[in-house]
Amino acid sequence: MFENINNGNFDLNTKTSIGMRSNPDFVDIVYMESLSGLEMETHFHNSYEIIYVLEGTAQFRIDNKAYSIMPGSIIFINNLENHYLKVKSYPYRRYFILIDPLWFQTVINDPILLSLFKNRPSHFKHTMSLNKRMRDLFTEQFGEILTEVKNKEIYWELAVESHLKRLLVLLYRNYRDAFPLISYTKPMETIFQVQKYIEENCTGEISLEKVSKLFYIDKYYLSRLFKETTGFTFKEYLILQRISKAKERLFYTNDTVTKVGSDSGFNNVNHFIRIFKKYTGITPLQYRLKNRNCIK
To answer: Which domain, by its residues, includes 252?
Structure first.
């Protein structure tokens, strides 16, 4: 969901934006300038999000972590994380990119690079502060992505893919310690595949025992390794994936709450409502009404 983007036009007295709203299947990018009064209450995107701040300062809260954002900061938020933003100084200029998680995992397919989105160990920080040389490179790269998405010339999709890969490679080469994973082992490969299996099958019957048998691994070892590698328990990751699916259906369909819950992997509507409220703070119906009335 975007922050009141009106087809790339001006939002009077508050911000200017240059971007696209055709919302292709796999990526969306916007450049925006806010001049005053920007505060975004806790929200989420059912996408991976990259925010690159060019000017201004802001306070971010991503789940239970708080950050003071300065010019040159780049922020990574996954599709399971709620976040809050309050701008502290203006003008506040930034790019942000929303990326379809399944598409991104297909084209990147590297656990170390993807760990910026998929892994959340306790020491992980969602932000990096770029030096002057890297700021110049990233400003150029984000501008190129915006141009490709806006103009959609032949092979623009491949160009966007190439730019995104270059961004991640540059970050790993220059800020390796900021990545949740900096090396790759066979157990990590297993966890990466387990994550992918959960994401693709979370709406069906799935359990730790079933997955451990599928991957020929002891369930207690899998449970411990999953938590150490991803920062989530197996059960928590499964629930969050189901809630992410439910949020998408609540926003984009008019299905009943019962059907949304069932289609998202929750067999009991009361259980669905209780779990949804536990993780989001509001009921599914409240979520639908709130987010449809306030499209960012």
So the answer is: 186-293
Same domain, 148 and 285: no
| Separation between Cα atoms, residue 277 and residue 284, nearest integer Å | 7
For 71, left (φ over 0), alpha (ψ -120 to 50), or beta? beta
Q: What's at 97, amino acid-wise?
A: I
Q: Do the domain assignments include residue 3?
A: no
How many structural domains does the chain have? 2
Tens-place pLDDT, residues 79-134: 999 899 999 999 999 999 999 998 999 999 899 999 999 999 889 999 999 999 99
**Displacement of CA 138 from its chain's centroid (Å):** 19
Q: Is residue 2 part of a domain?
A: no
What's the pTM? 0.84
Distances (CA, A) of 112 to 3, 47, 116, 230: 31, 19, 8, 12
Residues 57 and 138 in one domain: yes
Enter the tokens of residue 46. Answer: 């059912």
